[in-house]
């Protein structure tokens, strides 16, 4: 009987060791999970900054377009006035030509801004894909933690049952020892 108690105690110790190892593994997984969540947070901040840059670029493009349209309207109006005064049409043509050059410069600037905006959008898309990948890793980590917790619960239940058996055997052993003492 004492031998059986000793074997059960060894088995209980072995289960406890396994539970400690499982807890250490869970601790590592949770650490990775925390790191992943922090990375997601940083990536989201970067994405928000990229969106803010896009908004600023769009506002700047809108201002430039408005300015170009106003200048063209002003030059066309001026060319009409000059033409109606009967002055040489060369002055009106020179003014229109100057406006066209200004429009070309503005369009070049708009094109550069659009290129920058496209690059920012591509970067944002990449960042979003990275965030999605991290989210998948986080989900996998969470599933691992869940599995570890279930395993720990099973081990704890088994230890609890063994402890109850050990208690019963110890009580039986005490009763038998008391019989011999009488």
Brief write-up:
It is built from two helices and no strands. With 182 residues, it is mainly α.
Briefly note the structural class of the backbone.
mainly alpha
CATH architecture: Orthogonal Bundle
What proportion of the residues form beta strands (DSSP E)? under 5%
> What is the CATH top level name?
Mainly Alpha
CATH fold description: Helix Hairpins
H and E string: HH
Helix fraction bin: over 70%
Task: Indicate the low-confidence ranges by residue numbers.
Answer: none
Report the mean per-residue pLDDT as an integer: 77
Protein architecture, described:
This protein is an all-alpha fold and 182 residues long. It is built from 2 helices and no strands. It is rod-shaped and about 140 Å long. It starts with a helix and ends with a helix. This is Methyl-accepting chemotaxis protein. Keywords: Coiled coil.
What's the topology here?
Layout lengths: L1 H83 L4 H93 L1
Features:
182 residues, mainly alpha, Helix Hairpins, rod-shaped
